């Protein structure tokens, strides 16, 4: 009986963290699915319709703090369709943005169960539009869920050229 409970707990823990695929973890990267727009005044929120593909009308400003100090921020821009901007690889960044859509910029689910791991002090904020939807999101690498969100948009959040 104890093994069954431990196994069930492990499955729940892993399910809450997602598999690293931004489309398979809506609870950790985009919140619960809904049929209409969502809004909130908290950082990392969006007014996007979850699951909507990013196909045009994408223009973003990204501010990355690579060491978390607040002193050495890097600001970049990205536009898609047509592709441009000064992130290191605009084509790859646009592909990632299209893959996650506006939902990839939604605030993380505060009740999500995430692995307690730390992958660095980096932070980033992204604002603008994705597929015509306004977005304003905050990113970090402070736990397993946050790392998955960051990795899904790694080309956008990269600071090296």
Automatic annotation (TrEMBL):
GO terms for cellular component: extracellular region. Residues 73-136 form the Subtilisin inhibitor domain. GO terms for molecular function: serine-type endopeptidase inhibitor activity. It holds the Pfam family SSI. Keywords: Disulfide bond, Protease inhibitor, Secreted, Serine protease inhibitor, Signal. Residues 1-20 form the signal peptide. Residues 22-59 have a biased composition (Low complexity). Residues 22-63 are annotated as: Disordered. It is found in: Secreted. It comes from the Bacteria. Belongs to the protease inhibitor I16 (SSI) family. This is Subtilisin inhibitor-like. It comes from Klenkia brasiliensis. The lineage of its organism: Bacteria, Bacillati, Actinomycetota, Actinomycetes, Geodermatophilales.
